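Limitations
The C-alpha cells in this dataset are predictions for the assembled complex, not deposited experimental models. Users should treat interface geometry with appropriate caution, especially where small molecules or nucleic acid strands are included. An illustrative entry is reproduced here so readers can see what is and is not provided.
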Amino acid sequence: VIIVGAGPAGSAAAITLARAGRDVLIIDSSTFPREKACGDGVLPGAVKVLADLDVLPDLETVSYPAITRMVLHSPSGKQIRMAVKPLQPEHQFIIADRASFDHLLLKKALGLGVEFRRGRVIGLIRSHVSVTGIVLRDSEGTTKLTAHTVIGADGSTSIVRRSLTGVPPPVDSIAIRAHMGPFNHSQDTAEFYFEPDLFPGYAWIFPLGSNRVNIGLGLDIGHHRDQGKTLRARLETFLQRPDIRDRCMPHTKTLSLRTGSYWFTAVHSHPFAFAGALLVGDAAGFMDPLSGEGIRNALLSGKIAGDVLTEAQQKSWSQEKIQATYVQRCEEEIMISLKRSLTWKRWMLNTPRRFNHIVRLFRWCYPITRPLLNTLSTNFQFK
Ligand SMILES: Cc1cc2nc3c(=O)[nH]c(=O)nc-3n(C[C@H](O)[C@H](O)[C@H](O)COP(=O)(O)OP(=O)(O)OC[C@H]3O[C@@H](n4cnc5c(N)ncnc54)[C@H](O)[C@@H]3O)c2cc1C
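Predicted assembly:
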C-alpha cells in the first residue's frame, strides 16, 4: 500500500496496516518534524482513537496540561465560561504542537516497519478504471511506483483527490496561526472569539505550556477576500484588541507563523472511495464544519482504511466491496456527526445577530441549555 501524506491520517493508516503485516510505503513532500497550521487541539474523541492505535503512552512526551475550561466571546462582547470534562476520564482534551505530534505518529509507523520516502506525488497511474500506483518527483527525478492500493492522505489541497476527480478540492476557508510567548493565559483554558469582523469565522487562543499560546484565525475565504487585507494584517488587528494586548509582555514575540487553507464539504457527498484508491482525513473533507476539528476524523478514517484493507486481503474482497465497506464505515463513524455539525453551523452561525441571541439565551438559562449541549457533544460533558 502506498500512502501519500504523513499527517495524522496517513500515519494512522500506516500503523494499522503495518500491524496487520502489510508492506507499506508512506510518502511526504516535507522533512519531519514539520510544522502545520493548526490550533494544536487534540480533543477527547481524537485521544480515544490514539488509544485504539496504542500510541497513548507516547503522547505524554508531546502534549501539555489538559483543557478543563472554555471561554466563548460573542460578537457583541458577551462571554460564556464553561467548565468541561471529557466523557471518559482517560481521554482528555489536550494540546500538542503538531510538529512533535505528527512526528511521533510517523516514528511509531516507522518503528513497525513502514518505509518513508521524501518526495512530491504529482499524479496517479491507472490501468483501465483502477488506480495502480503513483508518480513521484524527488531529488532523483520522476519515478512511477505501483501499489495494490493508494491512500490519499495528502491534506486539504490533495493532489490524489484532484487526480481522481479531475477538479481541485473545493477550498472554502483560510487560516493563520501564531505560536507566541510569553502570554498571560490560563494554561487549562481554550478561548474562542466570534468577532464581528471575522464572522462567520473566529479566533482562538489555546495554551501551549511554558506561557506560550497558539493564537489563530479561521475564516471564510469569500468573506476574507471582501475585507481586502492580508491574513497577517488581520491577525495583527486581532492582537491589538485592548484585552489581548494587555495579556502580552514587553518581550512577547511570535515564535512561528503558519497559514493554511481547508474545506468542509464532504458532507455534500463528495466521493472518497475509488477503485484502487481511498481518501482519508482532510483529503476526504472530514474536517468538522462547526468546530474546525479534523485530527479525530483524520486518525479515525486512516484507521478505518487500514482495517478495511486488512479485512479485504484476508477475505479476497473485490474493489467494489472495499469501496462500499469503507464508505459505509465512514458514513456511520464520521459523516453522521459532520452532517449534524453542518446543520448546527447553518443555524447558529447564520448572522452575528442570531449568534448573539443564542449566546444570550445560553447565558440566561444555562441550567436548561447545559443538558442540551451535553446531548450534542461527542467530546465533553459541560459542567
Ligand atoms: C488553522 C487550522 C487550525 C486547526 N485546528 C485544529 C485543532 O485545533 N484541532 C483539530 O482537531 N483540528 C484542527 N484543524 C484541522 C487539522 O489540522 C486537520 O484536519 C488535520 O491536520 C488533517 O490531517 P491529515 O493527515 O488529513 O492532513 P495533514 O495533516 O494536512 O497532512 C497532509 C500531509 O500530506 C503532505 N502532502 C501534501 N501534498 C503532498 C504531495 N503531493 N506529495 C506528498 N506529500 C504531500 C503534507 O506535507 C502533509 O504532511 C485545523 C486546521 C487548520 C487549517
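Some entries come with short summary sentences. For this one: The radius of gyration is 21 Å.
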